[in-house]
Amino acid sequence: MDTQEPEKLGTPQKALLINLNAAVFGSFAEIGAGQEVARWFLRVGGASGTVAKTISAYDKEVSDDLYGSGTRYVSKPRLQAMMKNEWEQLLGQLAVTRGATTRFFSFVDTISARNFSGSNDCHGWMGLRFLQQAGGRPSDVILHVNLRDPSNVQQQEAVGILGVNLLYASQHDMKDPQSFLAGLLEDLSLERIELDCVELKGPAFEGWNCAELHARLVTEGHAEAVVFPVEGDPVPPNELLYKRAVVMAPGRFGGLEHLPAELLRITLEELPAEELKESKGALGLFCLSSAPPGEQGVESLPAAEIVRIVDDLRKAGYGVVLFRAPELYMMSALLTRYTKLRIHFAIGLSVLVRVMEDRYKNLPGSLLEGIARLFTQNVRLVVHPMKVEEVEEWVKQSGTTGWKWKGTNGMVYANDLHPAEPLDYLYRYLLSEFWILPSRKTVP
């Protein structure tokens, strides 16, 4: 009995297999990173069996004439306009002569690869409309990607691999969401491509839980973070966070910390007016890590359980960001990719103690480096008080030692806490410099 693993296919083999499949035929429209996807099908041989047309409308006036004006050139609306135009044109030209035997597709992308000065946000949108059977209803895949290679040439190469993977996966990896996602990102590490938003529609994906697939982007290491908005389709972090004054309420799955929506509401109300002047408004979000801090080797929760918890949180009226990393300084580092405004973490005393007690073993500078990284990113910790009896119960359950506190009218505020020396010296310094901000409002 042969138990050998099937031979892994590289990008050239995948492109060639599609070219040799006479039933698959379509068009390619690519803007912004060369024609790297179409190039694979043109170079491996047999392209006339797959490629009906390739186009690259780089000039803005030409692009507007083809796809309409009024949208940003690297955006989901632009991608959707490209997909609609190319699909209608493909069917209009070929449906009569080939429609009975052909599974048509239209591949589109609009990408902002690294510019000459290296000053742009390297990201883009990629989409595929395809048929599972000739004459059937089409299905759509829309992806948002961040390009993380250091050079334009490497980014173009990564886009080419991802595009071939997408087209191949739509034909060969449709058994379940796990197979599709694995095929989509094959030969692409997080160091090269970050996939932080996937939208699936149509009969090919009936019965799939797209929210769980969205969570898998983080739990399986394909994205640093994904967003679950309060309602509507998934959005990438850059679109939700751009130029927003952000308040984040961090918590842990199954941990001791709670995430009452009141923490977010009160902190949003307390934001200084001057911090909102240059923003597009304030935004409150719950944030969770897919893995608990300091517990190496512990597997993430199943995607279905994560989605259940996320759905419960969204009922409070705020979206949720699922992060890969558990540390606040890692969360804030991602947020500062998209907003230069101050970031506020709305936390309770238990999270504050965890931040100060963490040894940050992954950093050479340990605690001092972790604290420095957090607060040099224009971050403030807004710490909400707890009842004395709640603090006592939390300390008992968590096994925390060395911290002392006093109560004020039955409440413990951030400036009432004292860790053991010498940590207390650092803690008092952070309070005096207003990096840690004790909130005087109590959460009901």
Description:
This protein has 444 residues and is an alpha/beta fold. It has 2 domains: 11-208, CinA-like (Maf protein); 237-438, 3-Layer(aba) Sandwich (Rossmann fold). The chain contains 15 helices and 17 strands. It has helices spanning 11-19, 36-43, 60-67, 76-98, 152-172, 177-184, 210-219, 237-241, 261-270, 303-314, 328-335, 349-357, 366-375, 388-398, 423-432; strands spanning 24-31, 51-55, 103-112, 123-130, 139-147, 193-201, 225-228, 245-251, 282-289, 319-323, 343-348, 379-384, 386-387, 404-405, 411-412, 417-418, 436-438. The strands form 4 sheets. The chain has a 7-stranded mixed beta sheet with strand order 7-10-9-8-11-12-17, sandwiched between helices. Strand 1, helix 2 and strand 2 form a beta-alpha-beta unit. Helix 1 crosses helix 5. It is elongated. The mean pLDDT is 90.
Please supply descriptive tags for the structure shown above:
444 residues; alpha/beta; Maf protein; elongated
| Distance N to C terminus | 66 Å
Total E-strand runs: 17
Low-confidence stretches: none
Q: Numbering strands along the chain, what is their spatial order in the largest sheet?
A: 7-10-9-8-11-12-17
Averaging pLDDT over every residue, what do you get? 90
CATH topology-level name of the largest domain: Rossmann fold
Class by SSE composition: alpha/beta
Q: Tell me the β content.
A: 15-25%
- Percent helix among the residues? 25-40%
Structural shape:
elongated
> How large, in whole angstroms, is the Cα Rg?
25 Å
Query: Which CATH C-level class of the largest domain is it?
Result: Alpha Beta
What profile does the largest beta sheet have? 7 strands, mixed
Name the CATH architecture of the largest domain.
Answer: 3-Layer(aba) Sandwich
